[in-house]
Each structure stands twice: as structure tokens, then as C-alpha cells.
Amino acid sequence: MRDFDCVVIGGGMLGCFTARELCRYQLSVALLERCSDVCTGISKANTAIVYSGYDTRPGTRKMQLCCRGNAGFAQLAQELDVPFDRCGSLMVCWGERGEAALRHKYRNGKENGVPGLRLISGEEAAELEPQLAPGIRLALLAPTTGTVNPYHLTIAAYENALANGCTALMNAEVHSIRKQDGGWLISTAEEQFRCRTVVNAAGLFADAIQAQIMPFSVRICPQRADYYLLDEQCRGLIRRIVFHQPEDGGKGLTLVPTHEGNLLLGPSEEPGSGDKEDFATSRSGLDWLDYWWPQVVPALPRRQVIRSFASLRPLLSFPGSVSGQVSGFELSPQFDPPDWVSFIGIKTPGMTCAAGLAQQAAEKICRFLGDPPRNSCFDPHRAAIPRLAALPMEQRQELIRRDPAFGRIVCQCRGVSEGEIIAAIRRGAATVNGVKRRVGATAGRCQGGFCLRRIVELIAREKGIPLTEVAWDEPGSEVLQGGSDA
Ligand SMILES: Cc1cc2nc3c(=O)[nH]c(=O)nc-3n(C[C@H](O)[C@H](O)[C@H](O)COP(=O)(O)OP(=O)(O)OC[C@H]3O[C@@H](n4cnc5c(N)ncnc54)[C@H](O)[C@@H]3O)c2cc1C
User: Fold this and answer.
1) What is the pTM of this model?
2) Whose CA is nearest to atom 18 of ligand 1?
3) pLDDT grade for 325, boundaries at 50, 70 and 90
4) pLDDT of residue 182
5) In CATH, what number does 388-469 get?
6) Spatial distance between the Cα atoms of 14 and 39, rounded to a whole number of angstroms
7) Quick one: which atom of ligand 1 is closest to the CA of 49?
8) For residue 299, which of 172, 281, 355, 406 sits 20 to 30 Å off, Cα-Cα?
9) pLDDT for the residue numbered 486
10) DSSP run (H or E) holding 221
11) Cα atoms in the Cβ-side hemisphere of radius 13 Å centred on 182
């Protein structure tokens, strides 16, 4: 049995940021994650946008967190050594109703104090983004919108929490929680933990964790979001994040030029299958993307699609009420006992607000624990794995001189070296996707067609496991099948 001041359940974006934030205080903190790596839930696949805040209702907690999150994002990204592009966004419409919606969002944004927000003409918008379909009626320019890779951000927060003293356990699924001796008793299959406070950051499963202390209070019904990813050859075709406002008031297409040079298209809004682990794309969602794509960006070549993928939105439903009507941002503070914080149903803009949500959670936990002193050793900085392809030639040579593994390129599409992959594994990547999320190997045009074999060999060697045990993700997704690896 181990004792902690706080146990954080779930190693997604919100769990990792909260663990990091709690490490600013003299507290013992544990992070329990049911999978073999962090960032395998919602946070592994989102739209990668740091929102400016013009689209959130004035006066709400969500709006305050979003605007503050956006303003502080450059500093956060710099501390965590994560690339962040403040590329700006353009919301465009082609009709009268869209125009009314944009004017409403402009007024909203002004009320929320979003900096630099401007309504511009269709002609000006077409000059800024020439790939967009002709005839734009009006556009809303938000220069403070940005983009960040969600898994780089999550993993960076995790690594920083570890460096500042957090204890993290993978393959540690929480099965039961009981109140005991004024604290909590948390059980996984392997171990029990005693703690004084709990943070429920279990993402799509946060309702099951909450049900342990408040039966039948809330349910999460996943809603599917499908995406297309276009090759780096599209770099520069779209320079800002583009939001399309359709005439029917429904969901429009979003285009995101990622830091890596890909273009992200999506997300759709489709019913989920009910299975919280079903991250498969849906035919209807991809049809929706195929329908809007030629109407919004007709000249973008279809052959540049290198991948489709899906995420799941944690839609809330309450017994006797309508799904999706209550925001997780407003729900949690009213819901929880004083020694407990829950993140339930935190959808967009959860990433923009992650650091702010984590800060509020840590403040609540600290209030309950009698305001512990600050941890004077806390260091908010974390260094990323050196990215060979992004370095100037002299620095590459120096890196290779110090460690020749950086001179052996494994992923040809992204120029990722063996040294980077080994560093990713030694920092916690347990699977092929864990390597991808840390250093980008297999994320290029060939999607692992050429480099997968070598990555599997490196994982097996570094972890001392047979080749046949190396998986894409969780058990059951082993890359190789059949006999022994002899
Ligand atoms: C489609 C989509 C697009 C989005 N786009 C944006 C965007 O562009 N910008 C933005 O600001 N926000 C965006 N968001 C919001 C943001 O991505 C989420 O708010 C955030 O990722 C939620 O992270 P999380 O930590 O709550 O959940 P998760 O990432 O799912 O993490 C939960 C973790 O808990 C673990 N877990 C579950 N049960 C247990 C258990 N019993 N014991 C131990 N561990 C457990 C899981 O394995 C998982 O690792 C988007 C969200 C979605 C769904």
C-alpha cells in the first residue's frame, strides 16, 4: 500500500497537466494510467487548435479559461519546448446566414476581449487564402488563434511532471474507489493506494470513476469525429486555420495547417458506436468530409490524403435530460466534494484551457490540504528530444559526433533518426504509436511502410521483449503475428 497526498486518475492531457501543476507544491502526487503509455485517449487525436475565444459564451468559465489559455500559450509552449504556431484563423462564409453568424461571433469576440479580431471582405480573405472557393461573402480574422500538436503537448506536460517528482504508473487501471479514514482508498488490479485527494481525469471513462462516489449521476456517450490528414507536400497551400460557416448553421469544415506541414481536415460530427474504445472512422463521417471539401477548397488535391482517423467527443448525458446540453466546464465545480476534482465531458477547447483547468484543480486540492508550501525545486522547463531534421547542419554534425545513432535515418519521410527513436523509447514510448507521438516516425507519407520493421526491432531491443510482443498500441494490436522471433 502506498500513500499520496493526491492521486490523479488518467494520463491524458488534463491528467498530465494537473499532475504537473500539483508538483508546484510540496505534495506527494501519483498519476495512474490504465494503458501502457500516456496520451492514448481523446488527447491523441484532436483538431490541434489553440482557440482565440470569440466563439465561447461571454462570462462563462469556459470563456475565461480559453482567453487566458490563449494569451499564455506561447509561454507554456516555450517552457515545455513544444512548437506552437500562432498562425491566426479565418472564418469564412458564402451566404447571408453565414454572414449573420460571423457578425454575431465578432460581437461575441469583442465582448470577450479577443485581441486583433477583424471582419474582412471576401476579396481580402481570398487574397489571404487563395485556395478557398471563390465568392466568399465575409470573413472573420482572428490573429491570435494558433496550432499545437496535442500529443507533443501532453507528453511534454507528463515528462515535466515526472521531472518534478510525480510518481507515474502505467498499466494501472483504477477499479474501485472507497472513502476510508477521512481519505480515499484506490485499487488497481495490482496495488492499493491511500490518498487524501483525488483528481478524476479519466476522459471517456470519467463517468465510471465518478459513479464510484456518486452513482447514476452522469454518463458519457461518445460522439465520433472523423478527420483526413494531407501530406506535407501541402505545406503553404493554406496558411491560417480556416473555419467554414455553412448556411444551415450546422457544423462546417475546419482546415488546420499543422506545424509539421500537414493539413488536417475535419472533424465530422457522427454518432458513436457506444463503445468508448472504438476509434474507427465512419463511412458517413468521411462522406461528410468528401461533400464539403470540394465546396470549400476545390483545388486541394485528393491524392494528398495520407490518412483518415477518428476521435471521440465525451458528450454528457444526465438521467432524464437531453445529451450534450451541459458543458463539462461548468459542471465539474458544482459537482465535486471538496477533496475531489473531476474533469467530465471536457470537450473543445479543453486543450487551450488545459493548463488553466489544471491550475484551478491544483488550487482546490491545495485548499483542502491546508495550503501546502510551494515546491522551491519546481522547474517548469522541459527539453524536447533533439529533432535532427530541424537542426542546422553544424548542430546535426555535432549531435551525430556525440551519438552516431543520430546519423542513421530510419523514417525517410520525416527524416527521423535512430537516435531520436531510441530517446523516445527511453522516455516512455512502449509502442509504435508511442514512438510516433514523440518523434513523428511513421507519420509521413508512407505511414510506416518503409520504417516500421526497424522501429519494431528497436522497441524489442530496448525493452528486452520478443519482436512478436511489439504492438501498435494496446495489447491485441501486435505488429507481427505467428511463431517466435528467433
Ligand atoms: C474531436 C475533438 C477535437 C478537439 N479539438 C480541440 C482543439 O482543437 N482545441 C482544443 O483546445 N481542444 C480540443 N479538444 C478538446 C481536448 O482534446 C480535450 O479536452 C482533451 O484532450 C481531454 O483530455 P482528457 O485528459 O480529459 O482525456 P483523455 O485524453 O481521454 O485521457 C484520459 C485518460 O484516462 C485513462 N483512463 C481511463 N479510465 C481509467 C482508469 N479507470 N484508470 C486509469 N486510467 C484511466 C485513459 O486511458 C486516458 O489515457 C478536442 C476534443 C475532441 C474530442
Assistant:
1) 0.96
2) 350
3) low
4) 85
5) 1.10.10.1100
6) 10
7) 8
8) 281
9) 46
10) strand 219-230
11) 3
Helix (H) / strand (E) element for 417: namely: strand 416-417
Q: Which amino acid, 206?
A: A
Q: Residue 244's beta-bridge partner residues?
A: 92
Question: Dihedral (C-alpha) 66, 68, 71, 72: value to the nearest 10 degrees?
Answer: -110
**C-alpha grid cell for residue 207?**
463517468
Through-space distance between the first and last CA atoms of the chain, rounded to whole angstroms:
40
* Closest ligand 1 atom, residue 204 Cα: 30
Distance between Cα 42 and ligand 1 center (Å): 3
Distance from the alpha carbon of residue 350 to the mean position of ligand 1, in angstroms: 8
Domain boundaries, the chain: 2-44+151-218+319-368, 85-147+221-317, 388-469
Give nearest CA residue, ligand 1 atom 26. 203
The answer on pLDDT for 179 being more than 90 is: yes
Q: Hey, CA dihedral for 28, 72, 357, 189, is it positive or negative?
A: negative
**Cα–Cα dist 486/278, whole Å:** 34
Q: Please report the pLDDT score of residue 320 as a whole number.
A: 64
The best mutation among 47, 177, 343 to test binding of ligand 1, ranked by most ligand atoms within 8 Å of the C-beta, falls on: 47
Q: Which CATH code, of 3.30.9.10, 1.10.3300.10, 3.40.1400.10, 3.20.20.80, is assigned to 85-147+221-317?
A: 3.30.9.10
Q: Which of 64-68, 196-200, 249-253 has the lowest mean pLDDT?
A: 249-253
Helix, strand or coil, per DSSP, at residue 143: coil
> Which of 18, 43, 228 for a ligand 1 pocket mutation test, highest count of atoms within 8 Å of Cβ?
43
What's the 10 CA to ligand 1 centre distance in angstroms?
9
With contact defined as beta carbons under 8 Å apart, do 131 and 299 qualify?
Answer: yes
- How many Cβ atoms are within 10 Å of 77's Cβ, its own excluded? 20
Q: Classify domain 2-44+151-218+319-368 by CATH architecture.
A: 3-Layer(bba) Sandwich (3.50)
User: Average pLDDT, stretch 449-458?
Assistant: 96
Tens digit of each residue's pLDDT (9 = 90 or more) over 359-380: 999 999 999 999 999 999 999 9
* Average per-residue pLDDT for the chain: 94
> Residues lining ligand 1, judged by CB closer than 6 Å?
9-15, 32-35, 40-43, 46-49, 51, 150, 173-174, 201-205, 209, 225, 267, 311, 313, 343, 346-352
- 82: cell is 513544444
**Is it the case that residue 415 has pLDDT exceeding 70?**
yes
